[in-house]
Amino acid sequence: MNVVIIGISGRVGSRLANELLQRGHKVTGIARDIGKVEPRAGVTLKQADATDPTALAPLLAGHDAVISASMFLSSNAASLISAVKDAGVPRLLVVGGAGSLEVAPGVQLIDTPEFPAIYKAEASAGRDFLNALRGESMLDWTFLSPSALFEPGERTGQFRIGADELLIDAAGKSHISMEDYAIALVDELETPQRPRRRFTVGY
Mapped to the 3 state alphabet, what secondary structure does 100-157 carry? Predict the structure, then answer.
């Protein structure tokens, strides 16, 4: 497939590129500063502001899917949805956050007293982004939330898939490596099972 990664310069975007290239896909990487991205075979780099649909849409045209790996505070759901639809790209996959996952019926992680204040603005923007997608009936979108601890690590290929509830392991920890997260997202890209749905991945 020909896949766009918006935010390829970030930690998650770069690992998604690794996973896509390993599986033989072609990648177009979009970032505000492509100087931060090391050129490599199979990746075409384009500089653009993802919040400007007029500039973004022509760069997305002709691709099979768009993956958004940008921070939510620097993104705009309406602009991205508009650009993807205007470009005629059939699928949008979004790197989500854990804050909107439920820890109890009707209780999201972001709304618990223990949720770190430093992450609250980004998590709230991520929840708003998900709600905007849920109101979109035309575009084929998927939103993948990681577990609470989301850091670089090992590519094990061993993880669990969930829906809207935070996944916690037997030791009471909620975590996933960015490498295993990339596997789960690219699996969904290659074999779509969750159109217009959010899901989560964790150990």
Answer: CCEEECCEEHHHCCCCCHHHHHHHHHHHHHHHHHHCCCCCEEEEEECCCEEECCCCCC
DSSP the chain: -EEEEETTTSHHHHHHHHHHHHTT-EEEEEES-GGGS---TTEEEEE--TT-HHHHHHHHTT-SEEEE-S-GGG--HHHHHHHHHHHT--EEEEE--STTSEEETTEEGGGSTTS-GGGHHHHHHHHHHHHHHHT-SSSEEEEEE--SEEES-------EEESSB----TTS--EEEHHHHHHHHHHHHHS---TTEEEEEE-
Instruction: Confirm if 63 and 28 have CB atoms less than 8 A apart.
Output: yes
69 and 12 Cβ atoms separated by less than 8 Å: yes
Dihedrals phi, psi of 140, to nearest 5 degrees = -85, 100
At 27-79, the pLDDT tens digits run 999 998 888 888 889 999 999 988 899 999 999 999 999 999 999 999 999 99
Q: For the whole prediction, is pTM greater than 0.85?
A: yes
Q: Which residue has the tokens 């998650």?
A: 12
Name residue 91's beta-bridge partners: 140
Strands 107-108 and 65-68, how do they pair? unpaired
Residue 84: strand pairing partners: none
